[in-house]
């Protein structure tokens, strides 16, 4: 019996990736201009970024609804499927906790249902790479135990290295003070961040885009090994400039 892989939209995988690897995606809710949208379903990342550039209030996100979890889990329970749901970091969203509650409720009704809910402690494409690896194994017919073991190794060794173009967005999202955002923007300060135990943690403050991109590569080279046999994911916030300016979010799987 094959294993079904579920993920939420915070994995930032494209529709093509979801289809190619047979991944079932559950959307988070995006709240923008007083309206609720299903992430990746009724609103796209480009629409969100465009709204931010137009100066609209920063969008907010809400976890996957309990109803969606219950509906998805019950569907697979009735079909007799085995399911692995890999969740967005519990330090950044309540989605994982919501899934665990629905896991307990559904298993009470379907005690033979083989369902596992894992907290990846990863975000965005770093999370997405974990999901893809699990889905690749599922497509080859790997059993649940093997997929769980490999998935755990991947999310425990996933590196996230990223920056933002403008501190104004971090201020609007409540991540930095108004003064820090003003001074940082004035001095062209680019914060370099990473993830630690599922949390977003500042790593360094660097002046200028060219320097921060160079530093990202240096940090990646220092932390990673055997890059010829690694998968490096590059994600960006909708910029249309040259490749290096698209390295707004860079994830490298650490081979150690």
Automatic annotation (TrEMBL):
GO MF entry, a single one: lipid binding
Record carries keyword Nucleotide-binding: no
Transmembrane segments: none
Keywords: Lipid-binding
UniProt-listed Pfam families: DegV
Gene3D superfamilies reported for this sequence: 3.30.1180.10, 3.40.50.10170
InterPro entries for this protein: DegV, DegV_C, DegV_domain_contain
PANTHER family: DEGV DOMAIN-CONTAINING PROTEIN DR_1986-RELATED, DEGV DOMAIN-CONTAINING PROTEIN YITS
Main function: May bind long-chain fatty acids, such as palmitate, and may play a role in lipid transport or fatty acid metabolism.
Protein name: DegV family protein
């Amino acid at each position: 019996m094959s294993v079904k892989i579920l993920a939420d939209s915070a994995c930032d995988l494209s529709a093509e990736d979801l289809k190619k690897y047979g991944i079932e995606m559950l959307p988070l809710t995006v709240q923008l201009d007083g309206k609720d949208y299903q992430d990746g379903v009724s609103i796209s990342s480009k629409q969100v970024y465009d709204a931010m550039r137009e100066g609209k209030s920063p969008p907010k996100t809400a976890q996957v609804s309990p109803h969606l979890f219950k509906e998805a889990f019950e569907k697979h329970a009735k079909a007799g499927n085995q399911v692995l749901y890999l969740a967005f970091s519990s330090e950044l969203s309540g989605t994982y906790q919501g899934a665990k509650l629905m896991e307990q409720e559904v298993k009470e009704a379907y005690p033979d249902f083989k369902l596992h809910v894992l907290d990846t402690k990863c975000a965005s494409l770093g999370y997405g790479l974990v999901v893809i690896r699990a889905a690749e194994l599922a497509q080859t017919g790997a059993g649940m135990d093997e997929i769980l073991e490999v998935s755990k190794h991947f999310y425990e060794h996933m590196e996230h290295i990223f920056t933002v173009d403008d501190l104004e967005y971090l201020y609007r999202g409540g991540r930095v003070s108004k003064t820090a955002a003003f001074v940082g923007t004035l001095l062209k300060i680019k914060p370099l961040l990473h993830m630690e135990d599922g949390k977003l943690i500042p790593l360094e403050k660097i002046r200028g885009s060219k320097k921060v991109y160079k530093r990202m590569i240096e940090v990646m080279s220092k932390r990673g090994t055997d890059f010829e046999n690694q998968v490096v994911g590059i994600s960006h916030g909708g910029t249309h400039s040259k490749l290096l300016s698209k390295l707004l979010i860079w994830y490298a799987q650490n081979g150690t």
